[in-house]
Amino acid sequence: MADTKQPHLNGAYYGPSVPPPSKTFHRPGGGGGGCCFNPFSCCCSCIANCICTCICQILCTLLVIVGIVVFICWLIFRPNTVKFHVSDASLTQFNLNNNTLHYNLALNLTIRNPNKRIGIYYDAIEARAFYQGQRFSTVELQRFYQGTKRTDNLTAEFRGQNLVLLGSNEMSHYNTDRSSGTYGIDVKLYLRIRLKFWFVKSTRVKPKIDCNLKIPLSSNGTTSSGSVYESKRCDFDWR
């Protein structure tokens, strides 16, 4: 038998040789390089951060300055709320016939400015009278300037007739008021005012005054119920 050995194999056969690992290269700016490979983007990021930091510092400084100025102004002026009273009220007619209300109401208003350094310009005063949520009359009052530590008196007169639509519950309240001789009437004052600080005048503000009144019906100076109207302080709302 012939010898089948091949001398050039020289032992066992292990397959082809493994090639060496290939080298990888990173392109500049292709990711993973950071600011070292893209200095332009790094500079932009630093500039944006600096701008944001400066803006935040400026805003914080302005807020602190505004707070200090407001606190100093409060210490100097010590503003107090103006006090409104309906010192007297006269109701001589208040009859509801066929959804038409006939009324005759007169009010004396007392306005007190307790501030020492703040004057008030009353550029507009609108008085509205309501019964059971229904407005039945509106009058314009005289505008004026009120100095510091001063009390002024105004008169509001509501007289005439107007259509008033009341539901069953409101009619029930009306019948109760008519039986008692005292009517619950709401008077609201809508103001447009300016404040005067020394020589500086503020912009117009529009506060609202709410006066919830209990007014006895009177005839010839006497009331049928024997009750007497009592002075009422109104609620001040800056809105």
Using DSSP, what is the number of strands? 13
Poorly predicted runs: 29-34
What is the subunit organization of this protein?
single chain
Basic shape: elongated
- What gyration radius follows from the Cα positions, in whole Å? 42 Å
Characterize the biggest β-sheet: 7 strands, antiparallel
How many helices in DSSP terms? 2
Strand content: 35-45%
H-E string: HEEEEEEHEEEEEEE
| Coarse structural class | alpha+beta
- Average pLDDT level: 83
First-to-last CA distance: 120 Å
As a percent range, the share of helical residues equals 10-25%
Structure in a nutshell:
It contains 2 helices and 13 strands, in the order αββββββαβββββββ. By secondary structure, it is of the alpha+beta class.
Description of the molecule:
It is a single chain. With 239 residues, the protein is an alpha+beta fold. Helices cover 22% and strands 44% of the residues. It is built from two helices and 13 strands. The protein has helices at residues 39-77, 168-180, and strands spanning 83-97, 100-113, 118-131, 134-141, 144-146, 150-163, 182-197, 200-201, 208-216, 218-219, 222-223, 232-233, 235-237. Strands 3, 4, 5, 7, 8, 9 and 13 form a seven-stranded antiparallel sheet that branches. Strands 6-2-1-12 form a four-stranded antiparallel sheet, with no helix packed on it. Strands 10-11 form a two-stranded antiparallel ribbon. Keywords: Membrane, Transmembrane, Transmembrane helix.
